[in-house]
Amino acid sequence: MARFVLAGKADCPHFAKAENLGDQLQGSLPYFRIHKILVAPDEWEEWLDVTCRSHGWRHSESPLVWRELLDRGGKGMLVGGLADFLEHCHEYYGVMSDMSTDMMLKIAVETREMEEIWREEKKLQASLRQPLNVWISGALNPTCSILIPHLLSEHIFPWASTLFGISLHLLHWEGEEEALHALHVETEWLGLPLLHQVTAHAGLEEAFRDADLVILLDEEEDAGNQGGGGGRGEEGEEREDEREEEDEKVKEGKDGREVVEDVREEKEEVREEEKEEVREKVEEGRELKEKEVREGDEEKEAGKLEEEQEKVEKEEGGVRAEKKDEEVRDEEVLEKEEKVEEERGEVKEKEEEEQEEEVEEMTDEEAEEARRRKSLLQRISARYRRYGRLIGERASRRRGGGVRVMVAGDAHLNLKCALLAESAPSLDPGLFVAVATPLETAASARIALKLGRRTTDVSGVIVWGNPSGTFGVDLQRARVFDHTGAIQGPRSFSRPVLEVLHDRTWLKTDLPELLKGRGATSASDAGGARPASVSVAHGILAVLEVWNGVPHPEAEGRVFSLGVCCQGHPYVPDGVVCSVPVTLSEGRWSPVLEGVDMGDELEETLMLAVDELRQEKEEGCSDL
User: Fold this and answer.
1) Around 44, how many Cα atoms within 13 Å sit in the side-chain half-sphere?
2) What tens digit of pLDDT does each residue of 171-211 get?
């Protein structure tokens, strides 16, 4: 058995002549076989260099011919170029090629055209058989292990079976390679039908390449201060109460002083009026007496005048006595004012001393907390801006809309989603979402527990704002099924939650506090594990199921709470990522505006969440 390998450039005339001679021999000799390797002209030099080095040959032109030693094995025997092949065929088989030069050139052109067509068909076939690339960042997060078996299924990706399966890429930047390798092996051992391959990455060299779906989970450094502040504690509350009491005292002292001043002013006005009346009477009496003296008995009238003067003097003496009494009272008022001022000064000094003590006690702790928070936000900003740039440069552009990016977890979801979208300007911001479904589910569960129903009996709860910071729970669309009450119906009958749950204090204060503490409760119940891993995995799957268009009786028209980059939203500024009610259809989300009545309290909460995101971005980018 003689097997020859003929390799050459697609546009080479010499390759065409050698190919023609080889076809003649293969057609006439039963044990002659020829294998052809057609190489694109722009790839020929590199291919020839690699082939010759691997076999230890020296050759520099097209074509390249060698004989495979099928009977003895080995690396093959070099024949050479066209002239060497023609000489070998003439000596061994007595055959010569009579192809003209024109025919050689014509065949070379046809071969080149066929090679281009063949390459395009090969690319098309490769694209049709290319697997769906799913990247999970933060792969060492416990949520990832829970997510993988449910994620790689036809229930979530119904079209994946028509492709070449799903390639799962596990990324944890600067993560432990041993832990990533263990997760890699464990995933392969699952034997999932749709799994094409698994790769593990501790660096960013290949991160997000050809990604069709990117899921970003919390990493170790994300689990710091999640912004939003904490309570004052019992000591702080006691100090606040003391300050309020002292402020009331000062206020009472101030009010008392104002009353004294008002009384004094009124008395002074009365005294002035009395003095004026006395003066008028005296003047009238004098005029009258003078007239009587001129008309009648001067002596008699003079006596009367003296009596009147004595009377006036007595009255003036009474006024002077009253004035003296008033002066005494004024001195008492001044003494009271001085006493109030002294008490106020003492209260102020005491308050300043307590403030200084509090500053001395809390400054170090608060300063350290502020430094930790700023450092955390800076690390998150730098990391997710880099992630966003890589996604924008390397992600897949197939499937119409391109890559889909989901941010899930417990820490700074809106901030991460905003940074990713801003750092990938070539992608549609509508492809980036922050999953707030775990918080929505937790609220439904708490309400169901309050009403004595199952979690699945409550639906339509909406979360506005920042799921990992300031948020508001909206129950306008919330309904409860199978509720026991005066009005009952079949299993499909439901009633508004706000009609059957009358404890408004619990809804306004207790429910938000319970939801804010859900992560700590889950962590303590799980012995210190990362909080809400199961809830986060369930939220991702629930959103993906509808986002991918999976037919489901309950999916049609379902409203989700998702952090999205809002544009033209009546309650959220443009370009801000905020959790709002949306519906998912044909791979796109749309905001729900019909039937939404934003009250003052909910609108204020939404604005606080917007300001919180802006503050986080400013702190995170301050030193970048």
Assistant:
1) 19
2) 998 878 889 999 999 999 988 888 989 999 999 999 999 89
Cα atoms found within 13 Å of the Cα of residue 324, Cβ hemisphere only:
6
What secondary structure letter does DSSP report for 131?
P
- Would you state the pLDDT for residue 268? 64
Say whether pLDDT at 545 is over 60.
Answer: yes
Give the span between the Cα atoms of 96 and 273, in whole angstroms. 146
Torsion of CA 496, 501, 504, 508, to 10 degrees: -70
Beta carbons of 431 and 406 less than 8 angstroms apart: no
**214, containing H or E segment:** strand 213-216
Tell me which residue has tokens 């009786």: 553
- C-alpha 7/C-alpha 36 separation (Å) is 6
Name the burial class of residue 281, with classes exposed (0-12), middle (13-18) and buried (19+) by CB atoms within 10 angstroms of its CB. Answer: middle
CA separation, residue 390 to residues 56, 114, 172, 383 (Å): 41, 37, 15, 11
Q: Nearest to residue 447, comparing CAs of 424, 420, 477?
A: 477
Q: Tell me the whole-structure pTM to 2 decimals.
A: 0.60
Q: Which residue has the tokens 């005494």?
A: 328
CA 394 to CA 403: how far, in whole Å? 10
The residue among 473, 447, 471 whose CA lies nearest residue 462 is 473
Radius of gyration, alpha carbons of the chain = 46
Residue 248's pLDDT band (cuts 50, 70, 90):
low
The secondary element (H helix, E strand) that includes residue 34 is strand 32-39
What gap in Å lies between CA 539 and CA 494, rounded to an integer?
24
Tokens of 82: 């066209």
| Cis upstream peptide for 63 (omega within 30°) | yes
Report the distance separating Cα 161 and Cα 288, nearest Å. Answer: 126
Contacts 24+ apart (CB under 8 A), 606-611: 606/464, 606/465, 606/472, 606/571, 606/572, 606/578, 608/465, 608/470, 609/414, 609/464, 609/465, 609/466, 609/469, 609/470, 609/471, 609/578, 609/579, 610/572, 610/573, 610/576, 610/578
Task: Tell how strand 560-565 and strand 432-435 pair up.
Answer: antiparallel
How far is the C-alpha of 545 from the C-alpha of 456, rounded, in Å? 18
* Of residues 220, 219, 199, the one with CA closest to residue 209: 199
User: Distance of CA 181 to CAs 170, 174, 215, Å?
Assistant: 10, 13, 19
Q: Which residues contact 472 (CB under 8 A, 6 or more apart)?
A: 463, 464, 465, 512, 601, 602, 605, 606
What's the rounded Cα separation, in Å, for the pair 136 and 248?
Answer: 58
pLDDT of residue 320: 67
* Tokens 């003895």 found at: 72
Q: What integer pLDDT is reported at residue 208 of this predicted model?
A: 93
What's the token pair of residue 20? 């023609």
Using DSSP bridges, classify how beta strands 213-216 and 195-201 pair: parallel, antiparallel or unpaired. Answer: unpaired
Buried/exposed 487-518: b ≥16 CB within 10 Å, e otherwise: eeeeeeebbebeebbeeeeebeeebbebbbeb
- Parallel, antiparallel, or unpaired for β 132-137 and 213-216? parallel
572/550 Cα distance (integer angstroms) = 30
Q: How far apart are CA 261 and CA 266, in angstroms?
A: 9
CA atoms within 13 A on the CB side of 212: 18
Mean pLDDT of the chain: 79
